[in-house]
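Worked problem 6 (solution included).
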Amino acid sequence: MSEETAELALRYTESADGVLWAGQLDRAGQVQDLDQLCRELQRRKPMLPVITRSDVYEEDEVDGQIRNRLRGKSEPNRAQ
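Solution. The predicted structure is:
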């Protein structure tokens, strides 16, 4: 994210009534993300967390053809 884009996002969140916090499952707990989350929580605005990248594509055979199907990650994969 460019500095200009980050400043624009900050202005929008300052004027927003609430925040959708999108976080990637494969980046959960990264220091930079947690620091930003703490700053947002200090604003005391309603926040709805959205977890992204919690699915994987798996190949499956359907009617003799290979198809990609979107499936939720298994518990062991989510813990990685």
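Discussion: The chain is about 40% helix and 35% strand.
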